[in-house]
Amino acid sequence: MTPSPAMPAPGFGDEPMDFSGDTPRLLSVRAADLTYERERAVPSVLSREELRRAAAFRGRRDRDTYLVTHLALRMALARELGMPPAEVPFIRHPCPGCGEPHGRPGVEGDPLHFSLSHCADRGLIAVARTPVGVDLERTPDPAVVRRLSRLLHPAEHAELALLPEAERAGAFLRAWCRKEAYLKAIGTGLSRSTALDHVGTGKVPAHLPGWRLDDVPAGGGYAAAVAVRLHPLPGGPRRPAAERGGGMAAA
């Protein structure tokens, strides 16, 4: 059995990614990684859509986290694909629900699959040979847990109810990160009901046929998870119709 993901590697490392086995490659960044030199490179590397989304953040920390996560993603993909970061051909896959091109983000031709998530001053990136989703969250307060736990799978809601109050936030967060990672990987995001899929609240994720689901070490106050498809999509790489270069909105 392939081991669970280790602590994510630095997002701006120079080492090539090893895709042996079914474990996705994980990269982590922080807002502080947006150095002066990297910030100067942003306008020439990111697309107009990415820059527009970054400008919409009110806080500097959230803006910097978004920029550094997308910059690290482009640089990692560019290194693997042998092309300049600005030329990575991002696309949107068809939505599984309606067929329109606003589903899971990807790279044209699917040579690699990716997902990203950012929260506060941290960003997390997953890259794999098959569809992948990743989620990173901060520990919520008890009021949020009480409100959102009703949206979980009935079995998960029941599991939380059996736990002492002090353990519920951590268990809820494990389940929520697993759920969002899986929903990103299948391309629906939160348009699919969070009550449909059982991912579990315990320390070991529930089994999802055809998928590998793992918790990711994220440090104090945070939780993260990654979901990756265990087998290639039927028919080999797909080439969905979508805009080249500028249409990515991965998180």
Describe it for me?
By secondary structure, the protein is of the alpha+beta class. It has two domains: 25-114, Ribosomal Protein L22, Chain A (Alpha-Beta Complex), CATH 3.90.470; 136-229, Ribosomal Protein L22, Chain A. Helix content is 31%, strand content 20%. The chain contains six helices and nine strands, in the order ββαααβββββαααββ. The strands form three sheets. A four-stranded mixed β-sheet has the order 1-2-6-5, covered by helices on one side. Strand 8 (211-216) and strand 9 (222-229) form a beta hairpin. Helix 2 runs antiparallel to helix 3. The longest helix has 22 residues, at 60-81. The chain starts with 8 loop residues before the first strand and ends in a 22-residue tail after the last strand. The model is unreliable at 236-251 (pLDDT under 50).
Radius of gyration: 18 Å
Q: What CATH first level of the largest domain would be assigned?
A: Alpha Beta
The second-level CATH architecture of the largest domain is Alpha-Beta Complex
Helix and strand content put the structural class at: alpha+beta
Count of spatially separate domains: 2
Question: Which strand order does the major sheet show?
Answer: 1-2-6-5
Give the number of DSSP strands.
Answer: 9
- Cα distance, first to last residue? 31 Å
Give the overall pLDDT as a whole number: 88
The biggest sheet, with number of strands, parallel, antiparallel or mixed sense and barrel status, is: 4 strands, mixed
Low-confidence stretches: 236-251
CATH topology name of the largest domain: Ribosomal Protein L22, Chain A
Helix content: 25-40%
Q: Topology as H/E string? A: EEHHHEEEEEHHHEE
Q: Count helical runs.
A: 6
Strand content: 15-25%
